[in-house]
Specification:
18% strand, D-Maltodextrin-Binding Protein, domain 2, 2 domains, alpha/beta, globular, single chain, six-stranded mixed sheet, 11 helices
């Protein structure tokens, strides 16, 4: 009898505890949410995070506060979220570097992108476009690759630095085209673009944001766009698929939201619901599309599958191109 009573009491305690957890998850959020961005304020990742945070705050009934933790190629902020409690109150808004840093640095990155985070949704992609100087004799991707195949490193390409999106996209192109091109890294996309416009560097992959003005002023021409379909603002420019490189749209830097691993599915689903509702609103879409973003808004499962493909693709490119991390 005594054993039976203890069993009943234990079962009741377990029911109460389980109910308490369920109630806490259903009540979530009960306090402000911190959304960590591993980049300085004002960049594309930060701007998109703030647009979404503002709208999600209304849906969730609690403030979603963007906290910029810039430095170490976004690793400072990523590590902080990795070590945060899995309670839904510290989240990460990240990009391509989350996968690339551990490929380049191994354990020194301080986190494992495959096991340390719970994906919520990929917000958007920021397409890359291949650009060169307006008065360059290279007028098409075919011209570029013809030159590249004449001899190793006959073509130079700029980037914002080793392991950045533009660097990796060009290395992927070189691998697929079976050509060896020479990488010229700079401290940021801006300085690299100036060298391309001056004709001192043959070309680069650059985010579509801000390109239209330079094209209109005849400082740049676009050889191809890294999107699945032609961009409305550049209707005469072919896609990478049209010039022989299908699937290149997946090289576009992504921006998405993640939580620490072991965050409950109920919390993940509530955050996903708030995020995708924001992405569906006309005013939010207009703001993001003005930046040149291609809106995604996928499910946690779809985002997880994308992140795996993204990791495997860049691991293959980095190995094939023998890319090393920057030491300065």
């Amino acid at each position: 009898m005594k054993k039976s009573l203890l069993t009943v009491l234990a079962a009741a305690a377990l029911t109460v505890a389980t109910s308490g957890v369920a109630l806490a998850q259903n009540a979530y959020p009960t306090k402000p949410i911190r959304l960590v961005v591993g980049f300085a304020a004002g960049g594309p990742t930060d701007v998109i995070a703030r647009v979404l945070a503002r709208d999600m705050s209304v849906t969730l009934g609690q403030s979603v506060i963007v906290d910029n933790k810039a430095g170490a190629s976004s690793m400072i902020g990523t590590r902080e979220v990795r070590n945060a409690p899995s309670d839904g109150y510290t989240l990460l808004f990240s990009s391509l570097g989350m996968n690339v840093n551990p490929i380049l640095l191994g354990e020194q990155a301080g986190y494992d992108p495959k096991t340390d985070f719970a994906p919520i949704s990929n917000a958007a992609n920021l397409p890359l476009v291949a650009v060169n100087a307006y008065d360059s004799p290279i007028k098409s991707m075919a011209d570029l690759l013809k030159k590249a195949r004449t001899k190793p490193e006959a073509v130079t390409f700029g980037s914002s630095g080793s392991g950045g999106s533009g660097h990796l996209a060009s290395e992927l192109l070189a691998t697929q085209a079976k050509a060896k091109m020479l990488h010229i890294p700079y401290k940021g996309n801006g300085p690299a673009l100036l060298e391309v416009m001056a004709g001192r560097v043959d070309y680069m992959f650059y985010p579509v944001i801000g390109i239209a003005e330079n094209v209109a002023s005849k400082r740049l021409q676009i050889l191809a766009v890294g999107t699945a379909k032609r961009l409305p603002q550049f209707p005469n420019v072919p896609t990478m698929s049209e010039v022989g490189f299908p699937g290149f749209e997946e090289t576009a830097p992504w921006v998405g939201m993640l939580a620490p691993a072991k965050t409950s599915p109920a919390i993940i689903n509530k955050l996903h619901d708030a995020m995708t509702k924001a992405l569906a609103k006309p005013d939010v879409r207009a703001q993001l599309e003005k930046l040149g973003a291609v809106i995604v808004g996928d499910t946690p499962t779809e985002f997880a599958a994308f992140l795996k493909r993204d990791h495997d693709r860049w691991a293959s490119v980095i190995k094939a191109a023998d890319i090393k991390p920057e030491t300065n």
